[in-house]
Design goal:
Largest sheet: 8 strands, mixed
Number of helices: 12
Oligomer: single chain
Strand order of the largest sheet: 1-4-3-2-5-8-7-9
Shape: globular
Strand content: 15-25%
Length: about 375
């Protein structure tokens, strides 16, 4: 009887020891994959979590709709308003991937966890600015050089490697329609992305007339340069706006879109390929080259643009703005600033900062 008990004790101890060994091996494997992800891509998920107050019963059912958006410290109010507008106008199972920098994470998490956005499903990803080393000009006149997150859209598959399709949104947008409708936009076979053409009738005509030909390729690229000439692109081809992207991530990886975009970034630092007189963006030209006549189109009402440009208030009627599915304040005048068209629309979706750091700037009656 004693011998049998001893044998049972020995078996139990062996089982415990076996489980401990298995657990350690699994942890080591997790650490290895964590390191491999960091070393291979340079972009490492900082955190993947639901808000601490997230309640399981509030989980939305159905296919996940990945939405990627960037968050800079000085524009967190924009991100919050954009996320709120997407979330409140849809019952779909939206999962946000918020790409940001280290110094913004704590403020962002506090804003999300202490407001009604605590029920939103999200993941925070840290963007590594060193990814851009050797790929952008050191020219101090180029404003976007100090804004590495403007290039985050080039690396979409790295943030959500398990997803086959995703939506990218700039932060200066408000979504008034059901984001699932945008997600279900049909991409043609072989197309890795869909954009809104700048020549579409809903937005471009009249708004940017004073900004040169920024609705054509010649507004972004220097067609006198040999590297551009060799591509055989037509200078009057309608450009597109990359503030909203529907990406087929499977095709993106197959076609090595990220690598090709990086190639043109690097070549520009050597040969100065971008237009100097008309366009200001240094993120758009590589996209125009890589997706030349190789992209699908987004419904114009799902990307009503130029609300941040002078004249937008005269261009669009309140009825048209109300009917739009997605509004984009691209341009110099943002809806959280002192001078902007339709800032009242943006205000409806803004959630005050619980830390008190961010405040929209509004013109008061006594201001000059």
């Amino acid at each position: 009887m004693t011998l049998r008990r001893v044998n049972v004790v020995i078996l139990v101890l062996l089982a415990v020891a076996f489980l401990i060994i298995v657990q350690r091996n699994l942890l080591n494997l997790g650490d290895f994959l964590h390191k491999e992800n960091r070393d291979a891509g340079g972009i490492l998920p900082f955190e993947s979590e639901l808000s601490p107050d997230f309640r399981p019963e509030s989980v939305r059912k159905g296919e996940e709709i990945p939405v990627v958006i960037t968050a800079t410290g000085e524009r967190l109010g924009a991100v919050v308003a954009a996320i709120n507008s997407v979330y409140q106008n849809s019952k779909a199972n939206v999962v946000f991937t918020i790409v940001t920098l280290n110094d913004t994470v704590d403020h962002l998490k506090e804003w999300l966890s202490k407001t009604k956005l605590k029920t939103v499903k999200y993941k925070i990803v840290i963007f590594k600015p060193e990814l851009l080393s050797g790929k952008i000009s050191k020219d101090p006149q180029t404003l976007e050089v100090v804004k590495p997150l403007t290039f985050a859209r080039f690396y979409l598959p790295a943030y959500i490697p398990e997803a086959e399709k995703a939506i990218y949104l700039d932060d200066d947008i408000i979504v008034q329609g059901d984001i699932q409708e945008l997600y279900e936009t049909n991409l043609k076979p072989g197309h890795a992305a869909a954009f809104s053409d700048d020549c579409d009738s809903a937005t471009a005509k009249g708004i940017i007339r004073g900004a040169g030909n920024q609705n054509n390729y010649i507004g972004f690229l220097d067609f006198k340069k040999a590297a551009i000439k060799k591509l055989g692109m037509r200078a009057n081809t309608c450009s597109f706006n990359p503030g909203v992207i529907i990406a087929n991530l499977t095709e993106w990886k197959i076609q090595n879109i990220t690598g090709r975009l990086e190639h043109w970034m690097e070549l520009n630092t050597q040969e100065d390929l971008y237009s100097k007189t008309l366009a200001e963006s240094i993120t758009t030209p590589p996209l125009l080259i890589v997706f030349y006549k190789r992209h699908s189109n987004i419904d114009p009402m799902w990307h009503v643009r130029h609300l941040g440009n002078t004249g937008a208030g005269n261009r669009y009627s309140p009825q048209f703005v109300k009917a739009a599915k997605l509004l984009h304040w691209n341009g110099h005048y943002k809806p959280w600033g002192r001078t902007s068209s339709f800032s009242d629309v943006w205000d409806k979706w803004f959630i005050p900062d619980p830390t008190g750091k961010f405040h929209p700037v509004r013109r008061h009656a006594g201001d000059n």
